[in-house]
Amino acid sequence: VHLDGDDTGGAYHLGEVVGRRSDMPPLHVHHRDDETFFVLEGELTLFLGDGEVTLLPGQAALAPREIAHVYRVESDVARWLVITSPSGFEKFVRAIAQPAEHDDLPPAGRAVDPQAIGQAAAGVGIEVLGPPGTLPANHRQ
Length: 141
Hints:
Layout: H1 5-8, E1 13-20, E2 27-30, E3 34-41, E4 44-48, E5 51-55, E6 60-63, E7 69-73, E8 77-85, H2 89-96, H3 114-122, E9 126-130
Antiparallel strand pairs: 1-8, 2-9, 3-6, 3-8, 4-5, 4-7
Helix pairs in contact: 2-3
């Protein structure tokens, strides 16, 4: 988290994410905020509603609130900025984050607690719609 709601008067949150090939969060929808992805290194695919967009360094895309979305890292490693407006997403990040033991990515296949993620997400207005690998076009509400 580079900037949080305290820094921006609640206007937005700015964070930085690094992921490895095939990293993909659960399918989800933000009910309170819009989420922007800006790729610094590597390649991401953003699956958004019925469409998808591939993002390369210097490219950005918006995932508006109330639209189901998920991303997938397509390159060996990707690094991107996440901007959510208004702020609040950083509370989710801080609730589920585990401090890094080393200055590199955590081991692939590390266990996660879906229930804890769902609870932390719900606390900031994010609804988890399906497990990692679920795409919006395959989800029925």
